[in-house]
Structures are given as structure tokens and as C-alpha cells.
Amino acid sequence: MSSKAEGKAYDPRLSLGDFIVELESSGVGPVDSELCHLLWTECAGRARFAEAVLRAAATAGVTVDPGSAAFADWVVELCPRLSLELGAGDTAAASVLAQLSAVSETTALRALTAVADDLLGGIGVNDPEGVLVRLHSSGILTCAEDQVRGSLLQVPSLIAAKLRHELATTAGGGSAVAALLEVLIEHMESAGTVEPELLSDVLIVARHGGYWTQLLRVTEAVGIPMFLLTPRTACTAFRLLPPKTRANWPGLEFFGTLAEDIDADSAAADPARIRAAAIRHTGPGLLRSRLPGILGASAPGEDESGEIRPDGLPVDVVGTVRQMIGLADSGRHGDAAELGIRAAAKMPSVRGRSVVRLLTAIALHHAAQSRRALSLLNEIEGPARAGHIDGDFLLPAIIAWTALISAVSGDCERADAHLASAAEPSETSRVGAGTGSVAGRSETPPSVIIDEHVTPPLRIAAALRALDRLDLERAQAEFDALSAYPELRTLWVYLPLIARTLAVLSAKSESGLLFVNDDAERYRDSGVLSAAEKDLLAFGRSTVFIALGQLRWAELDRERLSPACDARIVLDVRSKLVAGRNDEAIACADTWFYHRSLSPRSRAELAAIRAAAKLRTGDEAAAQSDFMMAVSLSTWVSSLLPLALLPLTDRSRLVDLTADSPVWAEAASEFAATFASPAQLRERLRRIGPVSVDLAEAPQLNAGEAQLIDLLARGLSVAEIAGELQQVTGTVKNRLSALYRKFGVSNRADVLSRARSLGYLTQ
């Protein structure tokens, strides 16, 4: 690129006084002193260039506004070529820096080193620091101080606009701009942090030059937070994209439609309104409908509706996300996690990898692989925290899901730490609290984009930990807010679990507990449930039926639990206690207590149940010892539920027997947020859960009696039953009479009706 203007003399840099004299002598008329100073700054003291600008503006009849980028980009096209008192290398360097509004010296050096070589035919810039010094001394670079970013370098607006225009018409200029975008986007991808001003420059350059691949890479490196960082520019860069571009790049189609909706909603208003619109348009349930062609039936890499790499992976973050969501919707969480692990390893941007790995951790949680999920979340939390943008969902979602998975898997210390971290107000919530738009997490609309990955898991974790502390008011408040949330997907399974646990602990009558148990079924929502989610439903129902003394119904739900679910053991032992089979409860608890498959929390429950069973057998000393162990274990696992779920009569007696034990002081210290003293904790345990039955009134059938009921239900006569069992008819008649007495009836029809109502006969 030449620095001369078609054989004319250089346009030298003048002092402000000489600059004014030159303008007045040029015949453009008297110029306002303030405007003269602004022109002198934005034209870098080049009076002939300033004269051309004034003449072009006068000819077009527009007001001169040297500081306006729009005015500069328009007017320079009407001006002759720019002549600078610079060498070819410095002019090339200035043309590179003219693409950017204001940058740090580090970014300027990176850009010059990587890009100027394209403009100089391979000669390159051997002394980039010296170039910056020369450009600054000639006025082509000026310094500006920013409170956040420090000292910045920028090319004056009119000079920059002219250099950009001339570069666009110079052979090789397009490749230089592409190279500049490459180095800047690579920096965004690897750093994980983004400067809003630099992002704005990259978006404008990529959009104006039609560099669609680079524009897509920006979406990978920054994502939806670009509408928070540089709201107006992001809307401008992505709305009204060419139809072919949108058709060829699903990722750009996604951001294009989002930008147009945000722009229409905010009416291109101030940045705060655009940010608010971005949050609204990515609210609960809205973003999923924007993802093009959600995939669900195919395995990773099988679908041909989108662009796929040779290794079978989607080419971008949007493609990966849509396929992972499709697999999860089909209940294929293991496949979704596998796809996420493989795809994240191929992604160059820190942001893109973190988003995909977050979804991978969620898929692992649904696939009952909590340890792997927490490990993955821990890995991405640090980078997400370092590059966090206020209003973005990524860090809050990582915190929320870590809290939930930790609470479910028994890592209560980590759950509490992340719940406390989530309670710290963000800049958005602080501003909202001042304006009345955002007052607190319980009653306000979302303050982050894609809030459905933040609020539901956070509320579930808070509710579960409140139940652990027997803070029923907090648990109820979290439950009420959660049940009103518009989009839960398969997380709805926690609603019936929380509702049923609350009912067992607080219901005042059997009918109230029964009502909650039935009413909990209304929370069913969308999504294919994983085995772990089905276990939650079965566990909640079984717990309620045990509390009601309906042990057969409890057994039916217990049989639905996965074989590896240790809740089966606890529910079985608890049923034996409520059935009055104390010796069996003790023996079963002894058998499983030290088994490695048992979680610490389940071990605390077995200790409490065993204490109650020993108390019933009259062995108070052993019961007292076991209950103190149960209190210690409950303190260790940070949950009082193992104690609270015991029948009230047994629990109250055990609390009284151990009232002088030091274990209560330890427990009160662990649960100090809920209880002010050990006495207050013990008093809560004496009052909570008043409805749960001590002994089931329903008849308990052995295997032979259950078989006899089944034969009666099949309509077999006494003789036919005798043949089936290979017994004489007299024996069968005696067994039937004993069965009738156990149910309190006198004939076949009544025993079948009673057996059906108690769950011994099901469809």
C-alpha cells in the first residue's frame, strides 16, 4: 500500500495553530475553534485531509462530526487518497491498527507481528515496538486512559476510517484483514476472557468484510454473552445475515434469529435494555426451540441433517449442543456424555469446551455417574470464574449443578459451599435491587441468560439441604418457587420427592399425608427418565407408604428400584421395623452395615433403625449405643433425616435416653444455622413427623400366603388350589381360614377385596 497521494506532496502533521491557519487559508471558511481542535485531533494534524473532509461534508450538506464513526466511514469515501509522512512499513502497520478502535499495547504488538507481514510481501515488521513509537510521534496513534483497561492506543477516527477504506481497495488487503481476525479470535479462544471493545471491533470487521467463518468462531469463543458485553454491536453484526450464509452455517442462523428477536424487543435502545432482552429471549424453555433440528434418535455422528466432521462429531458448539440435548431427551444420557467428552476435546475455544463439558457433567449426573460429573465441573469452574461475564449463565450453572449433584451424592460440605457462593449477589442483581427489578432469588425473574440451567438445580439443592437440616419452612419456600418455575425438564422428579419428604415430616394427619402422596403425581413433565430419576420417584413413594403402614405398596415400589440403589436395603430394613419384625430388622442391618456398597448416609439410617428395633426388644443399653452412633453418623453426613424418619414414639424415647450424650453438642454445632442449642435440636426431633405409624395394622403375608392370595385371584376352586400346591383339600381349607382371619374377613370375595386395597393384588 502506497503512502503517497498520486504524486502529490506529503500531507505533513501541523501544530494546532498552523492547522487552523491552513484551514482558513484554504477557503473552506471560518471554522469554530472547538471544531478545529476536534478536527486536528481526528485528522492527526493533517490539514489537507481535514480540508477534504470539510469540503465533502459541505457538498453533501451534512453536519461535521469528526468523532462519529458513522460520519467518518461515510465522508472518507468522498475524499482523495490519504498522504502520510510515513514509510511503507509504518503505513501498513497503521492500516492494521486502524481496523481496531482502542487496544492495549500488547494487543497492538500481537496484531502487528502477525498481520503486517501480509501487507509487506513477506518482509514483516522486525521492530514492532519502534513502529508504535514512530506512529505515536507522527500523531497516527494517540493514547487514551481507561479506568478498567489502563492505557490504550488508537488511530484517530477520520484517519482510521480512511486507512480502512484504502486497505479494502488494495490488493492483499482482504487477506490482511482475515489474518488480523485470525490472531484476535485465537486470542479470544485461548484466553477465555474477552475485552468488550476488542470484541466489538472483531464483530464489525468480520460482518462488514463477510468473513463468515471468523464470525462463527466468535460465537464459539464468546457465545450469547456477546449480547451482554457489546449489546448494540452484537445485534448489528448478526441480524439480517444473508440467507445463504444462514443456510450454510446453522450456528450463524441460531445467533441471527436471536439477534433479530432481541433487537425487535429492545427497539435498538440503550445497552441495558438489549441485555434485558437477551435474558428474556433465552429464558426458560425458549432457547431449545431456537436450536435447529434437535437430534435424538441417532447415535453420535450418525445424523446427516447437519454438517459433520469426518470423525463423526458436529462441527460447532451449536451442533454439539443440539445433538446432546436430543440424546438426553431420548434418555440416552450415556451417549450424550460420550459425545460431549469427544467433542469438547476438539474445540479450540475455552468457552465452547466449557459449555459442552457442563452439559456432559449434567448427562453424567443423569446417568448416575456423580463422581465423574463433579470432577468435570470442578475442572471447568476455575476457567469459568476467571472469564465470568455478569449475566452469563456458565459460572452460575456450574455452581448450581455442583451444589445439586453434591447434595444428591452426599457431599454436603461441597453443596453448602456452592450454595453460599451462589447466594453472593452479581452486578446484575445488585443493580436490579436498586431499581426494584431484581430483589432476590425467590421472587424475581431471571437475571442471567439460559436461566433454566441455573435456578432449578440451585433450588433443588437448597431444598434438599433444608430438608437435611429439618428447616421445613425454607424447604417449603424453595419447593413453592421450584414448582412455579416454567421449565424443569426431567428435574421435575425432585418435586414429588421433596413434597413427599416434607409431608412425612410435617403432615398432621394420615389423610394429609395420603393427599400429598397422590397429589405429587401431578408434577409429571416432559423427558425420558433415567434409571436414577425413576429411583427417586420409587423411593419417595415407598417412603410415604412405609410412613402410612402400607407395607405391601411400599414393597412394590421398592422392587422398582435399581439393583445397585442402596435405598432398597434401607427401605427393606425400615419396613421390617414398621412390620414389627424387630429381630429381622436387626439381623438385616447387621448384615449390610459395613458393606462397601452402602453410602455413609444409608449407614446412618441403618444405625438409627437398628437402635429403634433393639429398643423394642427391650435392650435399652444397646439401643442407646446404636442411637448415639446414628447421631454421630448423621452429623458426619450433615443430614438429620436418618433420625427424623424413625417412627415418632421410638425416636422420642431414644432422644430421651441419649439426652446427656456429648453427640448432641456436636450435632447442634453442625446444624447451628437451624438450631441454637442441642436442646432445641432434640425438641425438634421429638415433634417432627407425628403421622408415621409405629406398627403397621395391615396383615403381613409370608410367601406361602401371598401365593394363596394369587391363586384365589385366579378364580381357582379349593380342589384346584390343592392340586396346584400338591396338598390335600383339608390343609388348603385350614390355610384359607387362617388367611381370612388375618384379613378380618370370612369369605373369598372379601379377602380378595381387602388384599387388592392393601396392594397384595395389582393389575
From TrEMBL:
Residues 419-445 are annotated as: Disordered. Residues 694-759 form the HTH luxR-type domain. PROSITE patterns: HTH_LUXR_2. It holds the Pfam family GerE. InterPro entries: Sig_transdc_resp-reg_C-effctor, Tscrpt_reg_LuxR_C, WH-like_DNA-bd_sf. This is HTH luxR-type domain-containing protein. It comes from Brevibacterium permense.
